[in-house]
From TrEMBL:
<dbReference type="GO" id="GO:0043448">
    <property type="term" value="P:alkane catabolic process"/>
</dbReference>
<feature type="domain" description="Rubredoxin-like">
    <location>
        <begin position="1"/>
        <end position="52"/>
    </location>
</feature>
<keyword id="KW-0249">Electron transport</keyword>
<keyword id="KW-0479">Metal-binding</keyword>
<dbReference type="InterPro" id="IPR024934">
    <property type="entry name" value="Rubredoxin-like_dom"/>
</dbReference>
<dbReference type="InterPro" id="IPR018527">
    <property type="entry name" value="Rubredoxin_Fe_BS"/>
</dbReference>
<dbReference type="InterPro" id="IPR050526">
    <property type="entry name" value="Rubredoxin_ET"/>
</dbReference>
<feature type="binding site">
    <location>
        <position position="9"/>
    </location>
    <ligand>
        <name>Fe cation</name>
    </ligand>
</feature>
<protein>
    <recommendedName>
        <fullName>Rubredoxin</fullName>
    </recommendedName>
</protein>
<keyword id="KW-0813">Transport</keyword>
<dbReference type="InterPro" id="IPR024922">
    <property type="entry name" value="Rubredoxin"/>
</dbReference>
<dbReference type="Pfam" id="PF00301">
    <property type="entry name" value="Rubredoxin"/>
</dbReference>
<dbReference type="InterPro" id="IPR024935">
    <property type="entry name" value="Rubredoxin_dom"/>
</dbReference>
<comment type="similarity">
    <text>Belongs to the rubredoxin family.</text>
</comment>
<dbReference type="GO" id="GO:0009055">
    <property type="term" value="F:electron transfer activity"/>
</dbReference>
<keyword id="KW-0408">Iron</keyword>
<feature type="binding site">
    <location>
        <position position="42"/>
    </location>
    <ligand>
        <name>Fe cation</name>
    </ligand>
</feature>
């Protein structure tokens, strides 16, 4: 699965790990994250993420 990086703080969302602190289970693709999900580090929304190279 594709990893996505936050352009504001460089946090990387890894679908293999998910975001357990936000209730996102491992195996959840970036596209399947809720629309109101925000970066767990800096709080920006999904629009500030780009696919990792």
């Amino acid at each position: 699965m594709q990893r996505y990086q936050c352009m504001a703080c460089s946090y990387v969302y890894d679908p293999a790990v998910g975001d357990p602190d936000s209730g996102i289970d491992p195996g959840t693709s970036f596209a399947d994250l809720p629309e109101d999900w925000v970066c767990p580090v800096c709080g920006v929304d999904k629009s500030m993420f780009e696919p990792e190279e």
